Amino acid sequence: GIGVLIDMSLISISGSNSLDMHDLLQEMGREIVHEDGIGCGKLCFSKCPKSLPNTIRYLYWERYPLQSLPSTFSAENLVELLMPHSELEKLWNKSQYICLLYCCNLGNLKLIDLSYSYHLAEVPDLSHSRKIQHINHECCASLVQIQSYFQYLDKLTYIHLGSCWNLKYLPEMPGNVEFLNLKRAAIKELPLSVWSNEKISFLDIEYCEYLEHLPSSS
């Protein structure tokens, strides 16, 4: 388990409960994914870790090979979650989602980065993540919409949705947003809360070819 990997110095957990993986372990994981995926029609990850320590506060795992987080993982202590270039389709399976609703609510999460997760079909439920400040879903090409609760995340200042080519709907945004990248998104309309937000210092709507009109500032 995790303890064995720590003893072998293949992973380490820092004083801030951040999980770091040795380069050798990451390379082994990539080899397992490659070997298991040959000839089976879809990638199979039976040899990948089935659990993660629930005490983790900072998790960075580039090219995570599964479609969701391990079913036994409780993310209530997470402060930062970075999983760029992953194979995630959704962050939680059904049982985890129920747990999030009634047990742990991601109330400590401040940063989430799932950029370049091309198969991510839905944004994780962050409705109770009132500390969230930074969301990066750049190049999540399967995303179609962002949930309306985003407007209530009043500490959120950074949103990167650039190159989300299928993102068609953007709800009202919270008033503290300072950075909003929508480059190459498929949105048809820009919410008034974005256009009238005086705190935004960076707004990129370049190549938004389906954008029909901009809201009036009056």
UniProtKB/TrEMBL annotation:
Example of a GO biological process term: defense response
Entry keywords, A to Z: Leucine-rich repeat, Repeat
Keyword Repeat: yes
A Pfam family matched in the record: LRR_3
Positions of the Disease resistance protein Roq1-like winged-helix domain: 1-35
Classification via InterPro entries: Disease_R_plants, Leu-rich_rpt_3, LRR_dom_sf, WHD_ROQ1-like
Gene3D superfamilies per record: Ribonuclease Inhibitor
The keyword Repeat is annotated on this UniProt entry: yes
Name of this protein: PREDICTED: TMV resistance
Organism field: Prunus dulcis (Almond)
Source taxonomy: Eukaryota, Viridiplantae, Streptophyta, Embryophyta, Tracheophyta
